[in-house]
Amino acid sequence: MNKLFIFLFISTSLISQESDWKYLFDGSSLEGWHQYKSDKMSEAWYIKDGELVLNSSNDNISRGNDILYEKEFSNFELSLEWKIPRGGNSGVFFNVVEIDEVDAPWKTGPEIQILDNNYFFDTSQQDLLDYLKKFNGKNEKLSNYHKAPALYDLKPIGEIKYNPHGEWNHLVLRVDNKKNEGSITLNGQYVYSFPLYGKEWDKLISRSKFNSDNYFSGLSPDHIFYTYAPYFGKFQSGKIGLQDHGWSVRFRNIKIKELK
Fold first, then answer.
1. Are strands 67-73 and 51-54 parallel, antiparallel or unpaired?
2. Class of 22-258 per CATH?
3. Of 28, 32, 66, 242, which one has the fewest beta carbons inside 10 Å?
4. Which helix (H) or strand (E) holds 206?
C-alpha cells in the first residue's frame, strides 16, 4: 500500500509539474504572436516541420520583423530551442514594453544573444573583415559579451556547452523578480545569473551601450557603442520577443512556466 501511494504521489507530482508549462509556440500555430507594435503577425515568419522560421536574406540586416507574444510575464522560466545558420545572429527578448516613441523591442527589453559564436561577424567592420580572412572567416575577436547566450552587452559568457551553427541549442531563461535574480542555462549547463533591478543592474547598464548618460550624446565622431534607449531595462514585466537580425533563425518547443 505504501509503495503504491508513493508511486501515485510521484506520478501526480510529475504530471502537475509538466502541466505548469504553457506552449507559446507548439509547432503548429502562431496564435498569440504579433509583429512589434502591430496588431498583425509578420509575414516573414512561417512554420515548417514544427519549427518557427524567419525567412531572411542572411545579411545581418534587420527588416523590422521582430515578433512578440501577446501576454506580459514577470516571474517565469522560459524554455526554447534555437538553431542558427552559419554566421547567423538573432536574440530572445524579455520585459519588452511597446511604447509609441520606441521603434525597436531591444530598446526596452534585454536580449539573450543567439549567435553563431564561431563564424559571426559584422560586415560593416572592415578591419574585422580583413582580420577574419586570415582565419577562413572564423571570428576569434568576438567579445564574450556578444556571444551566445550572453545577456547582450551586459553579462558575458564563460565556458559553455555550445552546439555550432546548424545544430539545436536548448536555452532556459529564468526571471525571478521576487529574488531579483535572472539566470541562463544552455544545453543543461548553468551559465550565469544576473540582477534584474537595483544598483547592481544599473551598474551593468552604465557599462554598456545602453547607458543613457548624455556624455555619449552628440560626440563627433559618434561613439560606436552608444545607442539612445532611455527605457532600456526599466521594466520588471513585459513581453517575450524573438529578434529579426537578418538571418534565417529557427525556433521550436517555446514554452513558459510562471513562477509562484
1. unpaired
2. mainly beta
3. 28
4. helix 199-206
